Amino acid sequence: MAQCVQSVQEFIQDSFVPLVAALCSEEAEKLTRKNNLSFAELVKPFCRLTSEVHMRDPNNQLHIIKNLKIAVNNIITHPPQPAAIRKLLSDVVFLTQPAEGLVANVITAGDYDLNISATTPWFESYRECFLQSMPASDHEFLNHYVACMLVVSSSEPEPVEQFLKLSQEQHRIQHSNEYLYPKWFIPNTLKYYVLLHDVSTGEEQRADSIYEEMKQRYGTQGCYLLKINSRVSNRGTDEQIPDPWSQYLQKNTIQNQDSCEDGPYTVISNKSTDHLIPDGLDSEIKDGLSNNFKTHPLQLDLPSGSLDSIDCTKAAASLQDSKKSNSGTPHGACLTLTDHDRIRQFIQEFTFRGLLPHIEKTIRQLNDQLISRKGLSRSLFSATKKWFSGSKVPEKSINELKNTSGLLYPPEAPELQIRKMADLCFLVQHYELAYSCYHTAKKDFLNDQAMFYAAGALEMAAVSAFLQPGAPRPYPAHYMETAIQTYRDICKNMVLAERCVLLSAEILKSQSKYSEAAALLIRLTSEDSDLRSALLLEQAAHCFINMKSPMVRKFAFHMILAGHRFSKAGQKRHALRCYCQAMQVYKGKGWSLAEDHINFTIGRQSFTLCQLDNAVSAFRHILINDSKQSPAQQGAFLREYLYVYKNVTQLSPDGPLPQLPLPYINSSATRVFFGHDRRPAEGEKQAATHVSLDQEYDSESSQQWKELEEQIVSVVNKGTIPSNFQPTQFCLNRYSDNSRFPLAVIEEPIIVEVSFRNPLKVPLLLTDLSLLWKFQPKDFNAKHGGETKELGACNDDTIGTEAIAEFLINSEETKVARLKLFPHQTGELHILGVVYNLGTVQGAVTLDGIDPSVGLQTGKFVANGLSVRGRQDLEIQGPRLNNTKEEKTSIKYGPDRRLDPIITEEMPLLEVFFINFPTGLLCGEIRKAYVEFVNVSKCPLTALKVVSKHPEFFTFGGNTAVLTPLSPSASENCSAYKTVVTDPTSVRTALLSSASSLDFGLGTGAQPEVINVPLPDAVLLPGASVQLPMWLRGPDEEGVHEINFLFYYESIKRHSKMCHRVLRHTAVICTSRSLHIRATVCRSNALVDEEGRGDNMLVFVDVENINTSETGVKEFHIVQVSSNSRHWKLQKSVKVSEDKDTKLASRERAKLCFKAVRCKNSEENYTFADIVFGNEQIISSASPCADFFFQSLFSEFKRTHVQSHPHVSQRAAKQSFDETVRLIQRCNEVDLNIVVLWKAYVVEDNKQLILEGQHHVALNTVGKEALSFPQKQELPEMVLLKFFRPESTPVPARPTPEQLSNLIKTSLHYPESFSHSFHQKSLCLVPVTLLLSNCSQAVVDVMIDLRHKTTSPEALEFHGSFTWLGQTQYRLQLKSQEVYSLQLKACFVHTGVYNLGTPRVFAKLADQATLFETSQQNSMPALIIINNI
After folding, report:
1. What is the full DSSP assignment across 403-433?
2. Mean pLDDT across the chain, nearest whole number?
3. Residues pairing with 778 in the sheet
4. Amino acid 192: pLDDT
5. In terms of CB atoms within 10 Å, which end of the chain has fewer, N or C?
6. Rounded distance between C-alpha atoms, residue 697 and residue 669, angstroms
7. Residues 6+ away with beta carbon under 8 Å from 461
């Protein structure tokens, strides 16, 4: 149970006090009415004695009475009706609410921290009112009057006669059969005569004389002169007199509202003035109570739970008004502090001199009777039994006696005399004697099967045992158990059973027996009284929480039960309080259904009590939790919430928009897109892909775009990236870098994508959905800012806001809404959240056959659904910081500014369209397309560039593109190349031209990835468009290729915030295999060419058709082979067959051989040599052939440079190495690039198409094979792991023997066959010329050794042996590129085939030692045939 203001002893003592009746004359009542009080009310605050009182018990022992209180009541002759008492108790509980600002107790139990009210004043008020309003009963005397005050005014003409009349009236009420009520303790009731004197108006001498007469008539101890009204009521109110009556009379206000409309009586109590309407207050008020009292409106017969159960609210309002008016009425206005003391003295005199001596005398008389009875019983047991039992008047048979309340005793029965003595002792706190008498009476009653009387004796025996000083015996709880059971089950008297429970529970609580107390309280809950059950259940809950080990869940469960019974009893405020206290236990513990029920009830009760904010909060919790309710129930919750919310918003229509709980918004998933509405592509046009909200975020792709933008900005800014550079981000999301304020352009839309989730199983309809924003205008060219405007969708002059009329989210669906803003002014924009109307869907009334409106009042919702307007904020948490030590050890988050864009000045806006852009190409295929650039803004754009990681894929043409017009034949055949008709005589002979790399954007320091778009006049005006040709070349690797283009452009005006803009395009090209080319170069054995020069080489080109027939390619034609080099050029084709064309069907291979010679021109320009196999020459030095050649050259260089990029230490070591190694290595290098141009004949849709293309092969090393595209090497599935340590200082590489062998090129000139007559001369001498050519750029020392003998038997067998005549060793020095001729003679002794390639040639650089000396080998044997004539 909850804590009480009084201790249990004080509570019981105040519950059972001596009752004194008051019978006043009309004049006396008028005197007290001057103070707005009846006589009983007048003395009420002074009825507790301030000093100890002494009396003697029957054994003449002095007995001390402490803190005695008496009750003085007006006489009423009709007991109050049960209905009136029920209404009285209900109103008492209703008006006693928790104090405002009361600090609740915090109870910690396990994981729970509960704020619980420590006291329950409403229960104490109920208990006090209940005990004082109990009607008197015949089985006990505690509620019987002990004495009667007869009050007469001194102003009456014959006061003594008036006393006589009042005495006779009292005698008539007590002894005649006309009045059954009130009950009197003993026949000889004490009469105390009080003369009331009005000091302000009466004559004091007359009063004194009357009092003297009274003392002579009634004795000094039987009368009293009480002087009051010493103060004139209409005097000034300067002197403030305390009002001790207010605390008592506020309780009386309840009854002032309860007078019966058609009955003459008022609802009054029989015991105390706490709930009493005094006589004479109104002319219509009489002493009594109407028997046809109406049922109290709070006794709910209607189904509980309706939102409109406002009877209690109306009653409460009227009672509160009454309370205010009554509390405003002054009491005791004519009384001074002296009068207060006189009244207090009067009560003490009455108690000391009148009441207590009378009680003491009565106890002695009863005790004497008890002793005599015991003596008779001892001597004549049977006769005594017969004598005592003879006076009983049984009204029922014996069988009935055992099962009912038993027989009835006459008033003079000895058992009742014992009970009477016990009650008197109990009232004057003589608990030991009282217990003894109760115990004796209990035995007698049980022997007689008088269960009703026995229950009363058991009840008071238990209480007396508990109250005995020194606790000589334990509290007999089983007595109370038996009494309660008897009252409830046998006597069917719930009122007396409830009194037992209230007393016993309080006693058990004082002994910390909370479990027993709770069981007792719960046992008395029943369906006959909701109010009683609610109060007892609440106290039981407090018992559970106050245990040594608090039982939290039991507390919550019984609080819920109490709240439910409070609700049924019409006590909405108490019901709400109980549910709220229980909610603390269930909240957040996974009891979702219980939580929903509690919140729903709290919401309804709060709404009924007009606590709309609490109602909204409760319904909000139902909706935002992950509900496990059925769809029908969720729909009911939602409609209830909307209805309550509607009422809240109607109370303050101009207030701020409330926060709505539904639907959920995933703020971190919010995406912001800065982009205009793009024009759709028409016909053959294909719009640039750019960025859209439909694309998924790819961090790798995002990084690539960022690198491309940084690259082009670096080029524009001459190699450096500005410090204020901010990569362009079109779409901001949770993965993007949102640490900086994004930039948006004026008059261009901002799209915010908000992710909504509907957690309910019923659909939600959002209407008029738009963004909520705050804007601060700023002119970024000026230095001052503007005023901040915090607006929603109401000001379209600054920011245009687009609203979505209807947005439906189905059950448990996640759906995104794209909301637009149109900024019309520069400044700082802050997007705060969304605003919308939340409603239900029309037609969603029944779900799964269940009507979701069950339990709701009909007619509340309109047919088309109910909606409320509100907002939700978009609050995005930035990324967690994890850079510094402080950030790592704490939890800090960075800013996320995606919703705070800066609106910048007007900028140009580019759109790009691609015309005839292919999706599939052959590897190396050349295709011509067109690109259209459109400026859709209102300001011109310039500095248009494009950057790509694959510059070899496309070209806009070099500077020579406009210089070389298309030939007629090229335009007829729709060729992408520039062609010229060739002279038939020039077939297989090189046609020369030259070009500079600067013409194709590959000058010194340039980045070929960044390409200037050749706009006419370099400016694109607003609304203008231009089409430019673009040549495309299929990548060399087959498969699907994603090629990113980033178009960069600027405004003519320079802006402080945004310097440039970009447009993205991703082209997807699928390439299929075409040709594969292998090429090698080797030195020619011919020492001189036709022009007499010593440098010439052979180029072997191997072309294979690796295309599969699936692509529809019929055959490939090799139409031209071109070379590009600064040093070498193709001279002619060396081909045996006379076919003009080289045709290759699937999987066929062709071998081509060309002669290459050194160029004569300078090294700055590239020499292009075209060897044509057809009728038209493709000008390889013009666009697009040269463009793709130069781009592939750069790509090849970049690839090899990255792969073989030396470390710094290696570079330093190589610089320190002797340059002779490099000179030797150069002899082996060749800088020759081969371009193979081809046509492919494709059959598609029964039409033959001609495709063109080109492949590139870079020849760098003599004798080393080069490929048009490196073949993929299949990696082994598993390889051994190798550990190695890189050398810190690598040793400079020595030239390989292969490189050294190419320093000198040798050639033997001799006749192929020689005829000699061996008969005439046995020795045959043949002249042989040895040509030596220095291939290097340095002076070389050469040594020729002719002493070489072939030792291998195979050589001897096939070639025989011969001898060189003359010098056997020659030493020569050859200058750079020098050719030297040495005349030799070979001597043969017989015919045969001989190999003359036996001379050994050694070479070294002139200024070096013999470190690099090695033998020079011929490339092939030199065979000679010796014939005999």
Report:
1. HSS-----TT-HHHHHHHHHHHHHHTT-HHH
2. 79
3. 785
4. 93
5. C
6. 12
7. 435, 438, 439, 442, 476, 479
Q: Which amino acid is at 737?
A: D
Tokens of 948: 């790509």
Please report the pLDDT score of residue 654 as a whole number. 78
649, 767, 769 from 839: Cα distances, Å: 14, 8, 12
Torsion angle of the four alpha carbons 827, 832, 835, 840, in this order, in degrees rounded to the nearest 10: 150
Three-state DSSP at 227 gives: strand
Q: CA nearest 416: which of 454, 463, 378?
A: 454
Give the C-alpha separation, 996 to 1007, whole Å.
16
Q: What is the rounded CA–CA span in Å between residue 1 and residue 550?
A: 12
Contacting residues for 338 by C-beta, under 8 A, at least 6 apart = 230
Contact 426, 439 (CB under 8 A): no
Buried/exposed code over 305-325 (b: 16+ C-beta within 10 A; e: otherwise): bebebeebeebbeebeebbee
Residue pair 779/826 in contact (Cβ under 8 Å)? The answer is: yes
For residues 1249 and 1226, what is the distance between their CA atoms, to the nearest angstrom?
46
Q: Taking a C-beta distance cutoff of 8 angstroms, is the pair 333, 246 a contact?
A: no
% of the chain residues with pLDDT over 70: 78
For residue 756 the two structure tokens come to: 């909504």
In whole angstroms, give the CA distance from residue 602 to residue 596: 10
- Token digits of residue 651: 């109370």
Residue 730's Cβ-side half-sphere holds a number of Cα atoms within 13 Å equal to 20
Asked if 772 contacts 762 with a C-beta cutoff of 8 angstroms, the reply is no
Q: Phi/psi of residue 1000, each to 5°?
A: -120, 25
In tens, the pLDDT along 818-846 reads: 999 999 999 999 999 999 999 887 654 44
Tokens of 1089: 């060419």
3-class secondary-structure state, position 850: strand
Instruction: Quote the CA–CA distance of 915 and 919 in Å, as a whole number.
Output: 12
Query: What letter represents residue 610's amino acid?
Result: C
Please choose, from the candidates 263, 258, 267, the residue with its C-alpha nearest in 3D space to the C-alpha of residue 284.
Answer: 263
- 885-937 residue pLDDT tens: 888 888 888 889 999 999 999 999 999 999 988 989 999 999 999 999 999 99
Tell me the pLDDT band of 998, cut-offs 50, 70 and 90.
low
Q: Is residue 422 within 8 Å of 467, Cβ to Cβ?
A: no
Q: Greater confidence, 270 or 988?
A: 988
Contact at 8 Å (CB) between 531 and 90?
A: yes
